[in-house]
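Appendix B. One record, verbatim.
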Amino acid sequence: MTGTRKAVAALFLLPALVLLGALVLYPIGYSFFRSFLDDSGDFTAFDNYKTLFTDDGIRTAIKNNAIWVVVAPTLATILGLIFAVLTERVRWGTAFKLIIFMPMAISMLAAGIIFRLVYESDPDRGVANAVLVGVHDTFSKASAFPQAHPAMNSPLKSAGGGAFITKEPVRAGTPVALPLTGVAPDQMPGDAKAAKAAKADPGQVTGTAWQDFTRGKGRGKPNAPDAAELGYAGIKIEAVKNGEVVASTSAGADGTFALPEAADGAQLRYPASNFREAYNGLEWLGPTLITPSIIGSYLWMWAGFAMVLIAAGLASVPRELLEAARVDGANEWQVFRRITVPLLAPVLAVVLVTLMINVLKIFDLVFVIAPGSSKDEANVLAVQLYNSAFLDKDLGVASAIAMLLFLLVIPVMLFNIRRMRREAHR
């Protein structure tokens, strides 16, 4: 078209072709050749490729890669579309987009370190569990006595399911002792006071619930409140007759309580809710949730990328079409579904394909976030390639994994090329 001679054109293209051959074509060709050799360099035919589908670790990696390819790009694209549409009419939309896009400036390694801390199981260190525990405790308070239990020779016995009940029925006018032990002094309720023996009342069932333990050998009398022992402030007590609760109450700061005369002849029970373990959130980095957790960190990084591209496409959508649809009676959901999304289809395809190629080679986040106990469950092909090549020193299997990744990328690339050609012909 420009009249340039072919020899001159080839001369200018030669440096690019040399670099392409050295950095792309040669590694692909050598990896293909090396995938048919074993550790010692002997020809093994397709043994390395058979290993890909017989080794449990590699099969887990293939399964996880399939999950990544389906879930991560789809969710990132959906989030990007939602952010782009919702911020289009908001005055502070630009600031919001900037905040969402900022994680793209962080390297995968740094993001992995950040989310390794975010997903810490200890609510005092991990943000995710701190939020969950805060929400949970707002609606369901944790027990102050999770480790409490009756001591030997106690008037209480196990009632099953974590509850404790008196061995004998109680009587109005006779104070009841409900001693427990097992709670560390520094974990007792802040409003707990020195335990007191309950006063007898002929018309009520009275008693004391307290920590029956005094520091020092031989100090304190069992099954009786001592001056140094604290009451179980707020602990719940139920009166049970024939398996039914006929009355209930909570102990005061000094552990004393009173039940109405209906509790006469009943057994007193500490319900299991008194001893419920404190809610500490989820095991984000455990074997069950490790892959969804890492995908969550990926979305934090790449949803902004999807949002920016989709917002650019949204800016080119003719406003006349949107207004015409509204004039014809379409609501906002119909405009979005019937007009906006079809017009954004080419942009959505670009975002989806780009992210699919990106997640096929995901490495940094999985390598950094997954702890040793969950690395096998979080395994993906890129991490398995690294392990096979540098830890197991099995270059044949590593080359076979590299060729598998190459083959998985080809269909996505062909789809992208065909789409680009169709766009160019329009």
